[in-house]
Amino acid sequence: MADTRAHGSTAVATDGGTAAGPALLEVQDLTSSYGAVRALDGVSLRADTGRITAVLGANGAGKTTLLRTVSGLVRSSSGRVVLDGEDITSASVESMVGRGMAHVPEGRGVIAELTVHENLRVGALFRGKVEKSEYDRIYDLFPRIAERRDQPAHVLSGGERQMLVIGRALLAQPRILLLDEPSLGLAPRIVAQIFGLLRRLVDSEGLSVLLVEQNARSALSVADVGVVLNLGRVVVTDSARTLMADEDLRHAYLGF
């Protein structure tokens, strides 16, 4: 069996032992700071087409800063972000959507006064006209929000709000979806539903997902590759299956 352990943007082998193809997203030696605090310290990783890459680590490891820097919400002090061969390090946040990147931040940011359907429409504003079939697809993916499409978003449960913000992001037709702590505060049953749906979208439609999670067990159960961060640095990159089986790594960095 091929050795799958790798660091940075080096290719990570699949469980069958063959390396993944060209990366859709590459993060190269990325450094970001908040004042004097260096949140990312030379982080390198890759996210491949049609795979889930889980970024794991304790609070303060730099996971959220990584997604915010990749999507342009935080400006890096050095390093590069490359999407499908194009350097997007200095691109505007707005232009990221047109390039095929959708970022779902932590916190389930619905617009409480708008209905569920109006919230979905926000996700497609930059596209102009969107066919009814595209909204129907989101409702098919998330039957629970379909039942509430005409209700204001503030009546939704936490799980329903998470489904709504993911559905809204999918209406932008992303090639890569950046998800920040989607399991936070949700019941295990709802987490399993959401992660199972992500896995189906990746397998059936070739969507790429960069998933930031503190719930390492759930994330690794659906991911292809895991990247472990500690104090702003990559500790290890490996197949999700290998990381799940590494008892020393689990106890040291993943909390289970």
Essential attributes:
single chain, 256 residues, alpha/beta, Rossmann fold, 10 helices, globular, ABC transporter ATP-binding protein, P-loop_NTPase, AAA+_ATPase, amino-acid transport
Secondary-structure-derived class: alpha/beta
Elements, N to C (H/E) = EEEHEEHEHHHHEHEHEEHH
CATH third-tier fold name of the domain at 23-106 and 175-254: Rossmann fold
Q: Strand order within the widest sheet?
A: 6-7-8-3-9-10
Q: Using only CA atoms, what is the Rg?
A: 18 Å
The biggest beta sheet is recorded as: 6 strands, mixed
Low-confidence stretches: 1-19
CATH class of the domain at 23-106 and 175-254: Alpha Beta
Query: How would you describe the shape?
Result: globular
Mean pLDDT: 87
Note the beta-strand portion.
Answer: 25-35%
Name the helicity range.
Answer: 25-40%
Distance between the termini: 26 Å
Give the structure's gist in a few sentences.
Belongs to the ABC transporter superfamily. By secondary structure, this protein is of the alpha/beta class.
Structural overview:
Belongs to the ABC transporter superfamily. It comes from Modestobacter caceresii. Pfam families: ABC_tran. Keywords: Amino-acid transport, ATP-binding, Nucleotide-binding, Transport. This is ABC transporter ATP-binding protein. Strand 1 and strand 2 (37-48) form a beta hairpin. The protein has ten helices and ten strands. It is globular and about 45 Å long. It has helices at 63-70, 93-98, 116-122, 132-141, 143-146, 158-170, 188-205, 216-222, 240-245, 247-254, and strands at residues 23-34, 37-48, 52-56, 78-83, 86-87, 101-104, 176-180, 208-213, 225-230, 233-239. The protein has a domain at 23-106 and 175-254: P-loop containing nucleotide triphosphate hydrolases (Rossmann fold, 3-Layer(aba) Sandwich). Strands 6-7-8-3-9-10 form a six-stranded mixed beta sheet, sandwiched between helices. A four-stranded antiparallel beta sheet has the order 2-1-4-5, with helices on one face. The longest helix is centred in the last third of the chain and has 18 residues, at 188-205. The chain has 256 residues and is of the alpha/beta class.
